[in-house]
Design goal:
Length: 153
């Protein structure tokens, strides 16, 4: 009897789904198989349900939202290839991880959530074409004042 008790003590069970996701993400990141931030942004622009949660309503941080998207893309090579091509076709600039976090953090603001154009700052994505909150495609172009704005395509 003592042998079975001893072996049961050493079995660790994950506390929740969130623990499993974080552990899987750490392993994949450790294996150096990363997904560029511009591909993550292309995925989020097409799938608005993956946008970061509004403050005080969600229990995920922006970094965890980015990891959730990466896990979806890691699980399917076909999805990854599709969104990598979309990022290239949409002219989404190569972003740093910090820039992606900033863009997604700003997208939680009310002014970005309620407008018809994409919920991202057009100045940081000048030249890009992304899907808006209303389902239409928008292109970020410079105006006379040299400021980028979203224009419906």
């Amino acid at each position: 009897m003592s042998a079975t008790r001893k072996s049961n003590r050493h079995i660790k069970k994950p506390n929740s789904e969130k623990t499993i996701v974080v552990n899987k993400t750490r392993k994949m990141t450790k294996d150096k198989w990363t997904i560029n931030p511009n591909v993550v942004l292309a995925f989020i622009s097409k799938n608005h349900e993956y946008l970061p949660t509004v403050p005080n309503y969600g229990d995920y941080s922006i970094e965890e939202d980015i990891f959730r998207v990466r896990i979806v893309l890691w699980q399917s090579a076909k999805k990854f290839k599709t969104y990598a091509e979309l990022a290239k076709k949409s002219n989404i600039p190569v972003l740093s991880e910090a820039s992606l976090i900033t863009i997604l953090n700003e997208s939680k603001e009310k002014k970005y959530r309620e407008r018809g154009s994409p919920p991202f700052s057009s100045n940081k994505l000048c030249g890009s074409s992304l899907k808006g909150n209303d389902g239409k495609m928008y292109i970020s172009t410079k105006n006379k004042a040299n400021i980028c704005t979203w224009i419906a395509n």
